[in-house]
Amino acid sequence: MNPALKNTLLFCFVGFLLLITGILQGWNSALFILNMGLVSSILALGVNLQWGFAGLFNIGVMGFVALGGLATVLVGMPPVGEAWSAGALQVFAGLALGAGTVVGAVVIRKKLVGRARTFGTLAILVIGFFVFRAVFDAGVVAIEAVDPALTGNLGGINIFGPHRDANDMLLPDYFILLAWPMGGLLAAGAAWIIGKTALGLRSDYLAIATLGIAEIIIAVMKNEDWLARGVKNVNGLPRPVPYEVTLQSDPGFIARAASWGLDPVTASTIYTKLCYTVLFAAVLLILLWLAQKALNSPWGRMMRAIRDNETAAEAMGKDVTARHLQIFILGSAICGIAGAMMTTLDGQLTPTSYQPLRFTFLIWVMVIVGGSGNNFGSVLGGLLIWWLWVQVEPMGLWVMNLLTSGLADGSALKDHMIESAAHMRLLTMGVVLLLVLRFSPRGLIPER
Amino acid sequence: MDYLNALVAFLNFVFVPGLAYGAQLAIGALGVTLIYGILRFSNFAHGDTMAFGTAMTIIGTNALLALGITFGPLPTALLALPFGIGATILLVLFIDWLVYKFYRDQKAKPVILVIVSMGVMFVMNGVVRFIIGVRDIQFADGERFLITARDFKEMTGLDEGLAIKTTQAITVVVALIAMALLFWFLNKTRTGKSMRAFSDNEDLALLSGINPDWVVKVTWMIVAALATTAGVLYGLDKSFKAFTYFQLLLPIFAAAIVGGLGNPLGAIAGGFVIAFSEVTITYAWKKVLVYLLPENLEPDGLVQLMSTDYKFAVSFAILIIVLLFKPTGLFKGQSV
Amino acid sequence: MSDPFLIGDAMTGGYGKGPDILHGCTIAAEKGEIAVIVGPNGAGKSTAMKAVFGMLNVNSGSVRLDGEDITRLTPQERVVKGMGFVPQTSNIFTSMTVEENLEMGAFIRRDDFRDTMTQIYDLFPILKEKRNQAAGELSGGQRQQVAVGRALMTKPKVLMLDEPTAGVSPIVMDELFDRIIEVARTGIPILMVEQNARQALEIADKAYVLVQGRNAHTGTGKELLADEEVRRSFLGG
Q1: Which end of chain C is more exposed for a tag (fewer CB within 10 A), N or C?
Q2: In the listed set C102, C131, C153, which residue is the last one of a domain according to the structure?
Q3: Alpha carbon of C152: minimum distance to chain B alpha carbons (Å)
Q4: Chain C residue with minimum CA distance to B208
Q5: Which CATH number is C73's domain given?
Q6: Does residue B200 contact residue C146 with C-beta atoms inside 8 Å?
């Protein structure tokens, strides 16, 4: 079988799975899986850029996804005027002081020598830290005191929204789309800082470093309430697509739904999801096109040359660290974009929902299963593994029911087994990853 | 100024908790560092190995309690520990045979083994949740305190109390025994020395007739024992939750790397460095400072450098600083 | 004609599936003798020794030890048969003490090896002095003594040394050669690859000059030192 045919068949297979899901479980859930699958594919593209192209071992994907989520709040929410006047200036001054301290310490380290250097750096850091805390904390207290039940944060920069029609129904707010590139930028900024400090390290050190950074980003988002309300979550993010309730009250839409033979509620949920599908697919296709361009450009070839033999590439005069920094930032930015898209789809930012197994390691399963080094493989892996991730639970439950059908109802073992079906996901993902690594280490669509 | 009360407050809130936490991290890091030294990869499934061992020990504890067996004032879990260790040894040996051996025979690159260990991590995580669920489980029984704060105050007449939990004392004692056993094994026995030789220079070890399969098996057994012990001690001191154990991976790796990967002594030092830094930086120092400073200088705030939620940031910052200035760690570790 | 004690007979072969590096090369060592392999860079000196030790594929020809064909044995099995090998680099356990290095050398022995260790300490007195120091902390010459000592711990029937004097100063080199002669006097045949051709030929009972994986000249050390062509091409006149 030639590769092109095989790949087409593989994608057809994923389409078939979604089709079956649509027929058996309803189109609403099929579209839900497809939408998240598309976002997952984008994430996998980002990780593939880093791992497949450059061999960079980033297991801090979750952090970049979360930064993308943060961007939706910072861009999409209206500013909280009172909070801005209460303490914004102080918070920003505090942050500037903090940054200044770090820069100062770096400069001092470069300028001074010997013992003066150590003490100078230490002194700057210690003094700077306390000044920073003094200024910053007061601002934070002031901001968080503003209507804590509803806001207690600075909000975003969306001074236009929310949009409503004549009947006071919510309309789509396209401003939130700006959050997607913003998410990419935020993630890129974080990646630059991480890359500058950690990219020179060995692969497993870089892995631990990125794992740590991701945890820190989540910790910041959980604790800095002034930023995005922390664990109090931000609800009601604006949406770039029509709202279901608005559609349901639109006579034109009801008539059209009737002509398709659907009731307005079903029609509106499917329509909204389809809008997301179109948006996400567009982003995915653009990024896929760019990634393919990059892969086949001289730049992409150089990246793979560096990946395959770093020493030789260095000897040929390639600046390995600079190239690594580039691709690390690009890949992280893609993860940031995907993170913003995901939060837009959810309509709310919930920092506690960011779990490394789901947002970092699952993406790795997608990349490896799809075929590291191949962009189409990542897209396939994203769609396929996401489908599996969602469907394992019902399938597990079915298997458990089958297995325990011989046992009496209410027996402890039966209850335990049925209850455990919920944990089948991780087990299945691990087994899939191990099987692929063992029997098809280059993935479903291998690198060419 | 009241140095004595300040000292007691310091011991009570910083030193004792830090010592116990440090011991737990050290034993965890020893496992990571041994795997790195002998099998030459960073084992991401280590946190979940700890979780599995602890889950098994909890099951053993429950069985003992159901039989009416307790360990008097000590936690029953200590009696069930050998069972937990045994079960974990069987599991890791099975996984090594089923999964890792294939890649070892192929001489796969370390990073491939790291990804494989990610797969094992998923599976083990699933297995642990399958066996024992995701709830928070308290399984410490027996006496809660060695000394309560009130007893200490009555004994000494000081304003500050020094409470030592039984679990903290047990942690330190068990950790000392485990470390002593490990170092005796590595430095005095033939197999232990052959493990060190294998870690130092694999080709020469093979030339000397050292059997690599046996070395790997023994390593997994020791790692399983250490991981289970670390997990049980942590769980007794705090509580058991599958997800928390996964998160322990970060401070444990930080400890192993800070100490120098592959160096057992470094893992212990690293464990205490990380633990004391975390506790020191996230502790509200007001209580101690109130005794030390004259009244007019007494601090208004809590004098907490960082909120406890940022403890990851502390281990991480230390990790980065050490890596940037001393890439092989405080003690000389291996670099691949 | 009776076989030499150790002989790599007409060996042809190379690393893995790569091209052949040796072409019908013959190397032998007799009891109580020092045999050296010399030759220009890239002549296959170390490769020839590794072939004798089983570290590369010998496609044709054979290796025999004490009359027994050992061509198909792994290096580990050859150690058990009585071959001691000192690699050129990474030949000690740097993080372990001198004494532990010697113990690891005796790993395959299940009997009491304290006598052997005493003999080695007699042979290399400096090692006895530093026996509790980490081997990695020793000087280059001392490290080579540890490496040789480690290989002697199995009480080998033949000792093979791959460039034992690489990277040590001339004074240390002379001392090392003295030690090697002493080892040979205890009756153990020695097969040695050497960069420093002149000094090596001076102590050699038998010498092989290899060029491009083939035997170019063979003779006693003195013969080769006197050979005009050998002098001109390898010894710089």
Answers
A1: N
A2: C153
A3: 11
A4: C105
A5: 3.40.50.300
A6: no
Question: What are the sequence ranges of the domains in chain A?
Answer: 14-77+169-439, 80-154
Return the pLDDT at C236.
64
Contacts of A212 in chain B (CB under 8 A): 250, 254, 312, 315-316, 319
Provide the pLDDT for residue A348: 93
Q: What is the pTM of this model?
A: 0.91
Report how far residue C120's alpha carbon sits from residue C123's, in angstroms, rounded to the nearest whole number.
5
- Residues 184-203 in B contacting C (C-alpha not used; CB under 8 Å): 190, 193-194, 196-197, 200-201, 203
Cβ atoms of A173 and A161 within 8 Å: the answer is yes
Chain C residues in contact with B194 (beta carbon < 8 A): 104, 107
Neighbours, chain B (3 or more CB pairs < 8 A): A, C
Residue C165 near residue C90 (C-beta atoms within 8 A): no
Structure tokens at B226: 């250490």
- B189 three-state secondary structure: coil
Angle between helices B166-188 and B190-200 (to 10 degrees): 80
Rg over CA atoms, chain A:
25
Q: What's the pLDDT score for residue B294?
A: 81
Nearest to A208 among B125, B319, B324 (CB): B319
On whether both C78 and C3 belong to a single domain, the answer is yes
C96 touches B at CB < 8 Å: yes
Distance (Å, whole) CA A226 – CA A232: 11
Has residue A57 got a pLDDT over 60? yes
d(CA C86, CA C84): 7
What are the structural domain ranges in chain B? 18-246
Residues C16 and C66 in one domain: yes
Ranges of beta strands (E only) in chain B are: 145-147, 164-165
Q: How far is B137 from chain C (nearest CA, A)?
A: 43
Last residue within a domain, chosen from C129, C153, C177 = C153
Nearest Cβ partner for C94 among B190, B200, B207? B200
Task: Convert the pLDDT of each residue in B96-134 to its tens digit.
Answer: 999 999 999 999 988 899 999 999 999 999 999 988 888
Give the count of beta carbons closer than 10 Å to the beta carbon of residue C95: 19
User: Which letter, b or e, does each residue of B163-186 get, where b requires 16 or more Cβ atoms within 10 Å of its Cβ?
Assistant: bbbbbbbbbbebbeebbeebeeeb
- Residues of chain C with C-beta less than 8 angstroms from the C-beta of B205: 93, 104
Q: Which two tokens stand for residue A281?
A: 């697919």
Q: Give the 3-state secondary structure of residue A53.
A: helix
ipTM of the complex in this document: 0.91
Cα dihedral: C90, C93, C98, C103 (round 10):
-120
Q: Which of C90, C94, C105 lies closest to B208 in CB terms?
A: C105
Would you tell me which residues 314-333 of chain B have a C-beta closer than 8 angstroms to some C-beta of chain C?
A: none
Rounded CA-CA distance C136/A53 in Å is 39
Cα dist. B174→A27, B23, B296 in Å?
58, 9, 45
C94 and C18, same structural domain?
A: no
CA distances, C88 to each of A194, C55, C214 (Å): 41, 14, 22
The count of domains in chain C is 2
Question: Nearest to residue C107, comparing CAs of B207, B185, B37?
Answer: B207
Burial category of B148 from C-beta neighbours within 10 Å (exposed 0-12, middle 13-18, buried 19 and up): middle
* Residues C167 and C133 grouped into a single domain: no
User: From C99, which residue of chain B is nearest by alpha-carbon distance?
Assistant: B193
Closest-CA distance of chain B to residue C47, Å: 17
pLDDT in tens, B9-33: 889 999 999 999 999 999 999 999 9
* CATH node for A14-77+169-439: 1.10.3470
Q: Do C93 and B209 touch (CB under 8 A)?
A: no
Whether C7 and C68 map to the same domain: the answer is yes
Domain that includes residue C130, residue range: 89-153
CB contact under 8 A, C104 and B203: no
